[in-house]
Automatic annotation (TrEMBL):
The record marks S146, R153, K155, T156 as: Part of the allosteric site. Keywords: Allosteric enzyme, Carbohydrate metabolism, Hydrolase. Allosterically activated by N-acetylglucosamine 6-phosphate (GlcNAc6P). This is Glucosamine-6-phosphate deaminase. Pathway: Amino-sugar metabolism; N-acetylneuraminate degradation; D-fructose 6-phosphate from N-acetylneuraminate: step 5/5. Residues 9-226 form the Glucosamine/galactosamine-6-phosphate isomerase domain. It comes from Pontiella agarivorans. It comes from the Bacteria.
Length: 243
């Protein structure tokens, strides 16, 4: 695990964006794993800027998102489908057929999850996976106790995650879906590179336990200690509980 600490979240996001850009320049057909939430927003803004101002070309890139809520239509303002189009895809000319996001409205969730795994495999695996971290240590929506060998599947969000994500639903916890589809930890660990971003004091304990604590299913991000190419981009607040 390589830990990169920058003064601000913006500086850390720009440093992470450079890693993504380098990969896309070296491998224009790169397969990117993407995350939602507030953490990657500045990283996505920087990629959009590089696309506009520096001709960073995403036209041959393939993307796979980590997760999606169950029961939200694609058009719902809080669906991850909507989030990704608003905050990235609409601005960088990724081909629609190259975009993959778990289908939260799939009539057969298990079949849809198995098909998602097959699509990742057919694409040759994920070259670079972007991750945030939950205050409970989740990556994707692999909540504490998730198996390290898990694959894309349905998960129930913890109370903590529902509370954390209520801010996206106007503070209304009852509107936050209780279930989601998420890539598994096994899926994430097969990505050739993992970039985890964490900002703010709210993430400091989870970051410290993931970097310096025991590798444990109770702290899912700690599994990255076993990944051969995992980089953590932190601001000073998220790094503040490290020894
Ligand atoms: C989102 C995801 C989650 C978030 C995590 C942090 O696709 O997989 O693991 O990265 O919940 O969320 P924010 O960035 O909103 O603090």
């Amino acid at each position: 695990m390589e830990v990169i600490i920058k003064k601000s979240a913006d500086a850390a996001s720009i440093a992470a964006a450079r890693v993504v850009a380098r990969l896309v320049q070296e491998k224009p057909t790169a397969v990117l794993g993407l995350a939602t939430g507030s953490t990657p927003l500045k990283l996505y803004k920087e990629l959009i800027r590089m696309h506009r101002e520096e001709d960073l070309d995403f036209s041959r890139v393939t993307t796979f998102n980590l997760d999606e809520y169950i029961g939200l239509e694609k058009t719902h303002a809080q669906s991850y489908y909507h989030f990704m189009h608003e905050n990235l895809f609409n601005h960088i000319h990724v081909k629609p057929e190259n975009i993959h996001i778990p289908d939260g409205m799939a009539p057969d969730v298990a079949a849809s999850c198995a098909a998602y795994e097959q699509q990742v495999a057919d694409a040759g695996g994920i070259d670079l996976q972007i991750l945030g971290i939950g205050s409970d240590g989740h990556v994707g929506f692999n909540e504490p106790t998730s198996s390290f060998t898990s694959r894309t599947r349905i998960k129930t969000l913890t109370r903590q995650t529902v509370e954390d994500n209520a801010r996206f639903f106007g503070g209304a916890e009852h509107q936050v879906p209780r279930h989601c589809i998420t890539m598994g930890i096994g899926t994430i660990m097969e990505a050739r590179m993992n970039l985890l971003l964490a900002f703010g004091e709210r993430k400091a304990t989870a970051v410290a336990e993931s970097v310096e604590g025991a590798v444990s299913a109770m702290m899912p991000a700690s599994v990255l200690q076993h990944h051969p190419n995992a980089k953590l981009f932190l601001d000073e607040a998220a790094a503040s509980a490290l020894k």
